[in-house]
Amino acid sequence: MTVPRYSRVLLKLSGEALMGERKFGIDDSALDFIAGEIASLRELGTELAIVTGGGNIFRGLAASERGVDRVTGDHMGMLATVINGLALRDCLEHHGIPTRLMTAFRMEAVAEHYVRSDAVRHIQEGRVIVLAAGTGNPYFTTDTAAALRAAEIQAGVILKATKVDGVYDSDPVSNPDADRFESISYEEVLSRNLRVMDSTATAMCRDNGIPIVVFDFHGKGNARRVVQGEKIGTQVIAKEQS
Predict the structure, then answer these.
(1) pLDDT per residue over 17-51, tens digit each?
(2) How far apart, in whole angstroms, are the C-alpha atoms of residue 192 and residue 231?
(3) CB-side exposure of 148: number of CA atoms within 13 Å?
(4) Domains plus CATH for the chain?
């Protein structure tokens, strides 16, 4: 068996990753694809945590721009991530992958409350953990939740699953001449406002030495290739390494 470059990984999935070709909600084929990619990572012996977004169901910030109270909107967005987490847990379990859903605030009827020591124990015992409800606080994104949880469980990397094949110096959709970075420093991401993750999440990864790999998750096997150390996508790392 190939020894993976990263033994413990946090995968950041946007809500859109669960949406598939739909314009809203959750697509069964997208869930099945995600389960297949996760099964492939587990074959490598990789310990895995997943943080889910909720944009396929509700966006708190967008709602606040329409007049919804920001705190209320953010709480609604957190609940959307729990819905996604439940769907993902169910799909993974149906694929024979032992999974625990953990939430940042108490919802014992549907999930475990997130406790760091319990999360680490689940991972060490071979379970995938799905972490929902963000940080449990308004004004913080699920990107920040991913950075926080990665630091807490001592993940070796954050895999930022996207629809594009890395980080570009400008929007590759509107600018066909945009250049893709193979690697870039946290400082340059922040100074150029490249929006790999929000600035709080990027700074937290920098301060804790957690690399971020931005890659096209929709390519079959791409997540496994990243974990095995292949240079696909873009690495966000310390300045002296980039």
Answers:
(1) 999 888 889 999 999 999 999 999 999 999 999 99
(2) 23
(3) 20
(4) 8-237 (3.40.1160.10)
